[in-house]
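[agent] plan:
  1. take the single chain provided in the ticket
  2. run structure prediction with default settings
  3. attach structure tokens to the ticket
  4. add a short note for the reviewer (M.T.)
[agent] executing step 1
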Amino acid sequence: MTEAEQEVEVNGTEADDEAQDELDPKQKKQTRHDGGAADLERVTDYAEEKEISAANISSAVAQFGNQRNKENELRVAKEKELQLVQVKKEDIELIMNELLVSKAHAEKVLREQSGDVVAALEAIISN
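[agent] step 2 finished; step 3 output follows
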């Protein structure tokens, strides 16, 4: 017996193996495509089943509005607190001239640093 004949006897018939190999890629392709369609169906079904109620939307909008109001109140309170800090006009002019910033910016940073010129200069430089 030749080697080819021995392989046929060991492995079975070659014709059956080739026929099965031809079917497998086609089946694999269909299975692969069907799996993707099934995944897509699951995703779209879930999205369609979930509904958003008007009450939920109104609640979310109200929460955003409340949060914005709190942030505005905190900002206004901070600005009032900063207005109480005494700063010298010479200090503001020094910062303006040395770092070439606007008067409003120099005054704001100086007030945030409680009137400390050196700390205000460092704060402007570090930003």
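[agent] step 4 note for reviewer: The mean pLDDT is 77.
[agent] ticket updated
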